[in-house]
């Protein structure tokens, strides 16, 4: 259950990071640091938005699978419950 809680916290943090980066202006890296790592095209900014968003979605799906298997294993007569005894 602690693993599920930790993964849920990471999913929420990565989702919040993606949302916060999406709120920033289009060329915030160029304005903040004075460099153009992607030639001013904005691909780096999009990459920094989509990576946390994809990580968040993947972790949410994984957490749902973990929770489902955990809840199923708590049912009486389930094979995982019988093994623990």
Separate helix tally: 4
State the end-to-end distance: 18 Å
Count of distinct strands: 0
Q: Let me know the largest β-sheet.
A: none
Radius of gyration of CA atoms, rounded to a whole number: 20 Å
Low-confidence stretches: none
| Inertia-based shape | rod-shaped
Strand/helix succession: HHHH
Structure at a glance:
This protein is mainly alpha-helical and 85 residues long. It has helices at 2-23, 28-33, 43-73, 79-84.
Note down, in words, how this protein is organized.
The chain is an all-alpha fold. Helices cover about 75% and strands about 0% of the residues. It contains four helices and no strands. The longest helix has about 30 residues. The chain is rod-shaped, with a radius of gyration of 20 Å. The mean pLDDT is about 85.
